[in-house]
Amino acid sequence: MSSGPSPSIWSRPEPGARGASHSREEIAAAAIRLADAEGIDAVSMRRVAAELGAGTMTLYHYVKNKDELMELVSDAIMGEVLIPDGEMPADWRRAMAELARRSHAVFLAHPWTVDVAPGTEGGPNGLKHFEQSLAAASGTGLDREGMLDVIFMVDDYAFGSILRMNLTGDQFDQDASDGWINDRLARLPDLDPDEFPHLLAFFEGEDPEDLIRRMVAAVSDEERFERGLRVLLDGIEGRIERGWK
């Protein structure tokens, strides 16, 4: 007979102080240091144990498997997103903007986090982030579904901005981008104007290489993130004023 799924790490107390040399926060911090330095694929029970100066079997005293380790990592990352106590803006728009900026900054500091599977809502920081999101969205006066729409829209924007940067990051590296740009430049003269009229018109009257390099630079332009956030919040505010139809 199946015993069902294992209890979450959050349902278990931390090992007692006498038998514990490392806290969950220290374990998560060690894993995050590895991921920041070498990428998320470098994070393993063995590597984290070594980072802590402990044996691999010792780490199993704290976490049962890598899934639990990643729960600790994800919740620690969520802790960086949290607005400090007492600093939540009263205005819903300013509050949602602050949550978006903090999420964007954390993704920017730890770009590998976009490859970590979601599911941190059960951790203390994940729960508090959702509480803060609901507190911010409650100022809109919308019902539950409306508040969730607003929260997810803002989260998706913050997440998507970093996803775009991650997908293009290697090819847009200053040292690696020349080949990518030269390949696009070489293909432009061969484009059929009947098939690509808008693309060719976009380049008309411009130095193609200069324009492509400006497009590349725009990917990581922080002002573009702020412009997009204002447009998104303007749209949400307008929908609220029109009755969220």
Describe this structure in words.
The structure is a single chain. The chain has 245 residues and is mostly helical. Helices cover 62% and strands 0% of the residues. The chain has eleven helices and no strands. The protein has helices spanning 24-38, 45-52, 56-59, 66-81, 92-109, 124-138, 144-169, 177-187, 197-203, 208-219, 222-241. The longest helix has 26 residues, at 144-169. 21% of the residues are buried. The model has no long low-confidence stretch (mean pLDDT 86).
Characterize this entry briefly:
With 245 residues, this protein is mostly helical. The protein has eleven helices and no strands.
Which runs of at least 5 residues are low in confidence (pLDDT < 50)? Answer: none
Tell the overall outline.
flat
Structural class: mainly alpha
Largest sheet: none
Number of continuous helical runs: 11
